[in-house]
């Protein structure tokens, strides 16, 4: 690792990060996840998951293939299905835990699919849709009671999503795909904060304090949404969840990687690609139309076994290099059966699962993407000492932050007020460029508002002892 100090031209409007985002914490584990919300239903419909010709328990099989996190959805009161309710969630968590996997519980806060196009208020809460305090209280009570019920049975999830792909305003009434009014952030923030508080309060009474995830669909939408959320007081979250499907995104893998890198420096949260998938064929096993076809493919990744696996390996490698902490596949076990959906008999996803009906339900090579040989990012620490007698915060800008409008405020080390540190991850063998200032740089667009710290750079990690200069 070589790190160079290069003084760069001024960039206007550098954004200060919140204080709690400034110091990187201990590395989080990497989550190789699978959304298994359909598995219980598929088994009831006769699905058999095999490996080497032998029928296998799907939860145990996923754990054997490297999955360490199971994601499961919950709807409020979906009268059109017997699944994705509290009883179904109980079964999923029990089986996932028996296979020694962690669990992410995904509250949709709807009686049906909530996604980037629509967030429909549950029918039981429809009368209070425009009464924000009442709706926030209902959301709090439902979330809290659901988690306390699960915890009483030893089933508290390890992570909780407060909403699913909440690009539009939470719990609206319109189909946002055809009518997309602006978000009322006073209302939206009240609802999110009620859900977050419910998770925190339930966790405070449990041996497991679930991490809180907020989730937005497609990388190009994530940064604007979180900027608005933070501005309106939605700040208490641990994980940023991103859906990435090339069919519905304007970004390639480069754009996804860059977005993740910026997010982890902007916010005191880790980043997870919490939904992605890729087809291993464009063929179908049934009459139900598949959602991922030729329009879902990236150049260099054909709809083949090799293409599906390489997509997952390359995407995961990019997430790791960007400093993200997980990738979750959606939904690798929604295979074709004799059961029907509202869209036809079978599945809309069998060509993008991990199980090939043409080979009697054997796993595709992508199923073991967790076992690939990944290159880990390099962790570096910038260690900075101020001149004797100087005090206060320092400000760091670097190209590794991923944007010209991001600056990191460095607080003095608790044991030595003249010492400052910043730890981050970068791609291996990367030269980075950075500047350090003794006040917020380029405040009001003026370079003179900050003093550039003259630095001396070591061979690997950065260690500097300074005097200040204009």
UniProtKB/TrEMBL annotation:
EC code: 3.2.1.89
Keyword check for Amino-acid biosynthesis: no
Entry keywords, A to Z: Glycosidase, Hydrolase, Signal
Any matching Pfam family: Glyco_hydro_53
Signal peptide positions (record): 1-21
Broad EC category: hydrolase
Any single biological process term in GO: pectin catabolic process
Gene Ontology molecular function terms on file: arabinogalactan endo-1,4-beta-galactosidase activity; glucosidase activity
Recorded catalytic activity of this chain's protein: The enzyme specifically hydrolyzes (1->4)-beta-D-galactosidic linkages in type I arabinogalactans
Database matches in Gene3D superfamilies: Glycosidases
Family: Belongs to the glycosyl hydrolase 53 family.
Name under which the protein is recorded: Arabinogalactan endo-beta-1,4-galactanase
Organism: Brevundimonas mediterranea
Organismal lineage: Bacteria, Pseudomonadati, Pseudomonadota, Alphaproteobacteria, Caulobacterales
């Amino acid at each position: 690792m070589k790190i160079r100090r290069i003084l760069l031209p001024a960039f206007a409007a550098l954004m200060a990060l919140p204080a709690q985002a400034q110091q990187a914490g201990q590395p989080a584990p990497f989550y190789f996840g699978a959304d298994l919300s359909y598995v219980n239903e598929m088994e009831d419909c006769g699905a058999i998951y095999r490996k080497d010709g032998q029928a296998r328990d799907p939860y145990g099989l996923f754990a054997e293939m490297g999955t360490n996190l199971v994601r499961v959805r919950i709807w409020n009161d979906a009268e059109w299905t017997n699944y994705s309710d509290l009883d179904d969630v109980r079964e999923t968590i029990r089986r996932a835990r028996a296979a020694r996997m962690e669990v992410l519980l995904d509250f949709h806060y709807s009686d049906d699919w909530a996604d980037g196009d629509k967030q429909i208020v549950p029918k039981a809460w429809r009368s209070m849709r425009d009464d924000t305090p009442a709706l926030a209280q209902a959301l709090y009570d439902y979330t809290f009671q659901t988690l306390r019920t699960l915890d009483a049975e030893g089933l508290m999830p390890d992570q909780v999503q407060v909403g699913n792909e909440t690009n539009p305003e939470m719990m609206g009434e319109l189909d946002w795909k055809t009518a997309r009014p602006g978000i009322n952030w006073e209302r939206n923030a009240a609802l999110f904060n009620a859900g977050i508080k419910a998770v925190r309060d339930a966790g405070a009474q449990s041996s497991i304090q679930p991490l809180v995830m907020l989730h937005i669909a497609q990388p190009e939408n994530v940064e604007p949404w979180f900027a608005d959320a933070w501005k309106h007081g939605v700040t208490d979250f641990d994980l940023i969840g991103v859906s990435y499907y090339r069919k519905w995104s304007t970004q390639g893998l480069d754009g996804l990687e860059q977005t993740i890198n910026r997010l982890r420096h902007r916010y005191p949260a880790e980043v997870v690609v919490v939904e992605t998938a890729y087809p291993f064929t464009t063929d179908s096993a049934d009459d139900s139309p598949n959602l991922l076809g030729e329009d879902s493919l990236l150049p260099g990744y054909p709809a083949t076994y090799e293409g599906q696996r390489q997509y997952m390996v390359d995407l995961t490698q990019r997430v790791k290099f960007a400093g993200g902490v997980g990738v979750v596949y959606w939904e690798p076990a929604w295979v074709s059966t004799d059961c029907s959906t509202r869209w036809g008999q079978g599945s809309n996803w069998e060509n993008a699962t991990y199980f090939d009906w043409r080979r009697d339900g054997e796993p595709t090579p992508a199923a073991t993407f967790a076992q690939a040989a990944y290159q880990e990012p390099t962790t570096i620490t910038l260690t900075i000492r101020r001149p004797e007698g100087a005090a206060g915060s320092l400000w760091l800008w670097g190209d590794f932050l991923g944007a010209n409008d991001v600056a990191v405020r460095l607080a003095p080390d608790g044991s030595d007020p003249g010492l400052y540190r910043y730890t981050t991850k970068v791609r291996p063998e990367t030269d980075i460029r950075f500047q350090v200032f003794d006040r917020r740089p380029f405040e009001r667009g003026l370079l003179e508002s900050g003093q550039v710290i003259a630095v001396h750079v070591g061979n690997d990690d950065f260690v500097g002892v300074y005097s200040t200069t204009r």
